[in-house]
């Protein structure tokens, strides 16, 4: 099945106001920047976005945030975006902060058909007990807080009993990811650290769209090098060389050249 689409507009077709998106990437590494830009151009709004973070000011998901197209974020790290902090503290944005490993497993579980799982992460904290501010009222008060979660005791591999908190899987309407290589059947290969949340977000989406830096023909990818099989991908958008090269760095750290 040829899953290639030719334009960004065709790639994001069907993503309507109020949709839930699982967006790959870690920081600015491996983010589907072309798909994000197309959603910005289309003006799609009231989005709930599940992603490790929300980009930075003026790039990545930060573009959608600045234009008030995101209603709710489910993230694990948000410390690089000043506009994110402003919207959250002033009650303009709902935020569900989730431990990073838990977020990854919630996405994977959604793609694997596992409705929920128990984890020791968060036991004894507001993650399990509830009370984390999800939304402020704009005056410093909490309008909406996280609920308490079920906690149960299980014996571990060593026989020692400990508490575990129940976490629910995430299934998104759409998964948006970026791959290094992909074929027309949707089989994807990710480049080094861009193989972060991308496979998990692809698994989580009911419809997954992959922008690929290099499109190859079926059979060109060795099965052993495929990181994500095409069963999880419904649309493949080949990028132009210019689009593929347009990558940003969160914080550039350099050392002054020492003169001889």
TrEMBL record:
Family annotation (InterPro entries): 3-oxoacid_CoA-transf_A (IPR012792), CoA_trans_fam_I (IPR004165), CoA_transf_BS (IPR004163), NagB/RpiA_transferase-like (IPR037171)
SMART domains: CoA_trans (SM00882)
Keywords: Transferase
Coiled coil: none
Keyword Transferase on entry: yes
UniProt KW Transferase keyword: yes
Pfam family membership, one: CoA_trans
GO molecular function: transferase activity
PROSITE patterns for this protein: COA_TRANSF_1
Classification via PANTHER family: ACETATE COA-TRANSFERASE SUBUNIT ALPHA (PTHR13707:SF60), KETOACID-COENZYME A TRANSFERASE (PTHR13707)
Similarity annotation: Belongs to the 3-oxoacid CoA-transferase subunit A family.
Identification of the protein by name: CoA transferase subunit A
Organism the protein comes from: Phycicoccus sonneratiae
């Amino acid at each position: 099945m040829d899953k290639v689409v030719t334009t960004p507009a065709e790639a994001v077709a069907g993503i309507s106001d109020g949709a839930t998106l699982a967006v790959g990437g870690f920081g600015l590494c491996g983010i589907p920047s072309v798909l994000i830009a197309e959603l910005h151009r289309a003006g799609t709004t009231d989005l709930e976005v599940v992603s490790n973070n929300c980009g930075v000011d003026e790039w990545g998901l930060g573009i959608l945030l600045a234009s008030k197209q995101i209603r709710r974020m489910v993230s694990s790290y948000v410390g690089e975006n000043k506009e994110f902090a402003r919207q959250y503290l002033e009650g303009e944005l709902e935020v569900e902060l989730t431990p990073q490993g838990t977020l990854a497993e919630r996405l994977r579980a959604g793609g694997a058909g596992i409705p929920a799982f128990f984890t020791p992460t968060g036991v004894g904290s507001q993650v399990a007990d509830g009370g984390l501010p999800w939304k402020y009222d704009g005056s410093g008060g909490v309008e909406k807080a996280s609920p308490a979660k079920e906690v149960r005791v299980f014996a571990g591999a060593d026989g020692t009993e400990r508490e575990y908190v129940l976490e629910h899987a995430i299934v998104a309407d759409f998964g948006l990811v970026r791959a290094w290589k992909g074929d027309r059947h949707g089989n994807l290969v990710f480049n080094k650290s861009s193989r972060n949340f991308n496979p998990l977000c692809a698994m989580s989406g009911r419809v997954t769209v992959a922008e690929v830096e290099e499109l190859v023909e079926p059979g060109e990818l060795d099965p052993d090098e495929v990181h994500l099989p095409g069963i999880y991908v419904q649309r493949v958008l080949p990028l132009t060389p210019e689009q593929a090269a347009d990558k940003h760095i969160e914080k550039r750290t350099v050392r002054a050249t020492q003169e001889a």
